Amino acid sequence: MKIGVNIVNFGPGTDPGALRSWAQTVEGLGFDLLMVSDHIAITPDVAVRYPEPFYEPFTTLSWLAGVTTRVRLGTTVLIAPYRHPLLTARMAANLDQLSGGRLVLGVGVGWARQEFAALGIPFERRGRLTDDHLRAVREAWAAGTEGPGGRRIPVWVGGNSDAGVRRAVRFGDAWHPLRPTMPWLREAAVRLKAAADEQRVPVPAFAPRIALRLTAAPVGGPDRLAGEGTIEQITADLDELRLLGAGTVVLDPYDHDPRTTRHPETGWQALAAVAAHVRPRRDRSSHDGHGDGDHRRRGDHDHPTNHGDRTDPS
């Protein structure tokens, strides 16, 4: 199982130097994947959790590709309705080529109603717009007009709702649910297989994004997020996710308090603790056979002609 990190690309403590440090820390600790978030118009509903400055994901990842050498680069998640699909196809293909084939394109429907209004995009249609967007991106790549030079760019579809699961099965190489609890994840793995069986297609890879909040004392209760608690709790969560079939798990050290972006060392220390505990286990299980969507093949379903957040519509 591979482990990635959702780095902070926004907030009062974020600048080019901090982004470089995040990227080099993630790569230096041996993590497999570095991902960033997406917003365009920092409206009041966005600014409460993700304030300015907000570094646009394609621009940021293109720059970070030049200060890293190995770690893969991705979006968690790109809000599909905000861009024309041919622009997304072009930027993703270019970034993949410029980075040496390191891109993972995570896509979701979005949740910020005021941001949709600022961009002139109907919030109520975001689910259908995302379906259309994913279809058009796949078609552009297949036609070769905006293609990634022969490599299949993994597409991870975010969204914790039933609609998100169906969308991942239909369009994605992986399903990418965001910041759930462990009981939810246990049930979600079953939901994913059931949705794939219903559509009679292969099951997408399972690539959840979980919290990373390291504590001195154990965290209890039914609302404990996966990845929250002592290092023993966090590593136990990772072990269970591997057994549930996760090909990649993305750790998210941001706790939704913008002030913490001024102190990235807290997140770096948590990542170092995880790396120290997990690396020996990963070495023993490096051939467990789980994938993350990079090499998924769906035959006739690669480019369908029919049909990320908790507010994902049906």
Question: Can you lay out the helices and strands and say which pair or pack?
Answer:
Blueprint: E1 2-6, H1 16-28, E2 33-36, H2 44-47, H3 57-65, E3 72-75, E4 78-79, H4 85-98, E5 103-108, H5 113-118, H6 126-143, E6 155-158, H7 162-171, E7 174-176, H8 182-199, E8 205-206, E9 209-211, E10 213-214, E11 228-229, H9 231-243, E12 248-252, H10 265-284
Parallel strand pairs: 1-2, 1-12, 2-3, 3-5, 4-5, 5-6, 6-7, 7-8, 9-12, 10-11
Structure commentary:
- This protein is 40% helix and 13% strand.
- With 314 residues, the chain is α/β, with parallel strands linked by helices.
- The strands form two sheets. Strands 1, 2, 3, 4, 5, 6, 7, 8, 9 and 12 form a ten-stranded parallel β-sheet that branches.
- Strand 6 (155-158), helix 7 (162-171) and strand 7 (174-176) form a beta-alpha-beta unit.
- Helix 7 crosses helix 8.
- It is globular.
- The two termini are 30 Å apart.
Q: Which regions are unreliable across 5 or more consecutive residues at pLDDT < 50?
A: 295-314
Coarse morphology? globular
Q: Structural class given helices, strands, pairing?
A: alpha/beta
Classify the helix fraction into a percent range: 25-40%
Number of helices: 10
The succession of helices and strands, N to C, reads EHEHHEEHEHHEHEHEEEEHEH
Q: Quote the average pLDDT.
A: 90
> Whole-number radius of gyration?
18 Å
Strand residue percentage: 5-15%
Number of strands: 12
Main beta-sheet strand count, sense and barrel state: 10 strands, parallel
Separation of the first and last Cα atoms: 30 Å
